Queue: 4 jobs
Job 1
Amino acid sequence: MLGELARSLKPRGVLFSSNPRGSNQEGLSDERYGCYFDYETWRDYTTAAGFVEVAHYYRPPGLARHEQHWLASVWRKA
């Protein structure tokens, strides 16, 4: 899917993602399917698809890291 996104973007196009953060598991959670990746795994997937990282951060801001359940990242098409 990430490869298709990269191919569909214009040169130097941008991808923003906000993913639930976790220990690299996938599955249903309250009727919602999710991929709960840590930053390193998500970075590996996006760079393999042809993206270069611009920035990443954890949400919501102002909380301890273990309470920041979302990984937000910005990527540019290589």
Note: The mean pLDDT is 94.
Job 2
Amino acid sequence: MNTLRRLHSPDDVLKRAAAAAAAEPAALDACRQLLIGLRRADAERGSDLEKTLRTYYECGASVSATAEALFLHRNSVRYRLDRVRALVGGELEHPRISAAFMLAFAIDDADRTQTSGDETQRAQ
């Protein structure tokens, strides 16, 4: 029973791994390459594909929960996810695809946190 108490939660493991990977230029570049298609589409069309995909995974890949979280109709979420599928060229529910995106989001978040922390220290 004591062993179970020492285990980290999946969220904790992901955050720690992402923070370590964010310090690795090759890992950070790979994440940016994975996300660039979404970001380009969002920049060109203001479509919020990245936010939709992030929320979709945070909501356990539930279209209904994603729609509720984003204050959208379920059909709008489905449409956006179909656009992401077209960009990715695969099913977003596939374990490798979902793991890659969730890790890329976590590493990107960790990099932003580290970068903003570095900028705060320089300003002081």
Note: Helices lie at 2-6, 10-22, 25-45, 49-58, 63-70, 74-88, 95-123.
Job 3
Amino acid sequence: MKLRSLLIPAVACLLLFGFPLVVDNSYYIHMLQTIAIYAILLFGLDIVVGYTGQVSLGHAGLFGIGAYTAGVLFTKLAAPLLLALMGGVVVTAAFGALLALPALRVTGPYLAMVTLAFGTIIQILINEMTDLTNGPMGITMQRPHLLGMTLTDRSYFWVVCVLLIVALVVVHRILRSHLGRAFEALRGSPVASDCMGVSVYRYKVYAFVISAGLAGLAGSLYAYSEKYISPNTYNFELTVMFLLAVIMGGRKSRVGSLLGAAIIVVLPKLLDDVDLFRYVSVALAVLVTVGAGVFIAQGKSSWQRSAIPVVGSIALAVLSFVLTSMTDWRLSIFGLITLLVVYYLQDGIVGFVRNTLGLHGHGRTDAQAAALLPPSGDAVSTSVAGATTPAMQDLVAADKVLMQFGGLKALNDVNLHVQRGTIHGLIGPNGSGKSTMMNVLTGIYVPTEGTIVFKGESIVGKTSSHIALAGIARTFQNVQLFGEMTALQNVLVGLHHTYRSNLLDVLHARG
């Protein structure tokens, strides 16, 4: 089984590195190189969009920061390739942190607007800082040097491929670790994550910084690939293309990121050639029609749901023979194809294939995940660390707690004292304040008045994650499951506080 799992990646690497040896055409080598560079960025963007559930419209700006960092280091300091790439990663990650710290305090459309504004500001700064970036004239690059040798198009392609594999392995290890589970839990239930010790804000920032670093690496590689960078390259249209690539390829999937990168690079080129577009549109119509027929026969779809994609693909094939030029229609056709994919393949192409073939991968198997549980001794010692309270002394002391919502007093002058080793219950009718008291004790609500002390320390105003890490955990009346994770992974999120490993430990971990 292990040999078979290694066979596919080995064959893929062989095909990737052997491509320029078989295809001696610089245009196609450059196209595949661009796909690899975009895929590196999409690996990171998928962490933010696919795992934590945030919408970022600023990744084109981060991509540009990486490109211009490499360009400035090359032109101003004659920095070697590896130093320029490292500079692009570090500088972009720092900008990502500066953006994430204030931006991730908001969610939904507000976050999208903040990141969009960031991308616009970056484009303006690049255009205006002429002494550093050469303004609208852009920066012209030369072939990079590595180990004393000037890289050719072919050798630079191999450098990009090596870094693509490194980025893939790094992201894969992160997402299969407790960090990846924390990111995924944020999307499933932020409240439950916080109450299990996974700080929603902190881990969103972690995810964004990692994503920004990968965007910086991609941007630096892109600068050397194109040999010319200008402010207009890193615009709003590009960031929308990146988001579409994640959605169309399939979120929470490295294969989906690779596929999405290929789509946004190849599809616009495809729509430039009317003859090639005719062949592809006919093949697509046949594939969609046959696929819809199979799904209907198997009971996985209905005629009503299948009608629009079938009719749409056939109409697209007919239109391809009516058109004599793609110049005036390429953007409209691209938008139509994107709309159909996003609407009918909400899990992306990879998700659609998995659902069709019954392949529902969750990264590690439950047995593999169970093997990564912290030793029971560590878990126990962590859970009682710092608990020096002697028997019969209050472990939790809540005095004169008032929780007021406007003119409604949900809790009024409540006292609760819990001693170590005792069991307590709150009993009362609906609306008596039981859930409100639990929310106050676990930091979801901050009491209007009163004190709450745990192990001799006030926890009023502390975050839910801080309180959970201190030793107060809770469950929910309305069960807050992480719906896209397995049962064991749900349990492992609850053990998040027992892990003491950092990002470097995750990258060095075996398995």
Note: Residues 362-391 have pLDDT under 50 and may be disordered.
Job 4
Amino acid sequence: MPALSAELLRSMESLQRSAEQVAATALAGLRRGLFVIPTHPHIRADAAERFREIERGFEALATPS
């Protein structure tokens, strides 16, 4: 398996969150009554795309074929 470049490793490390950070975010979400608690902000774009895929599915199935 090829080694990861130093640049990619630095990029990945910059996204890391400590267990304490994740726990604090999770507790804040629970206090606010959230059902979904996003603990890693860097996945927001991926989550948005997934939501768009789900919406397309609903739309496609709501229209009779």
Note: DSSP finds three helices and no strands in the chain.
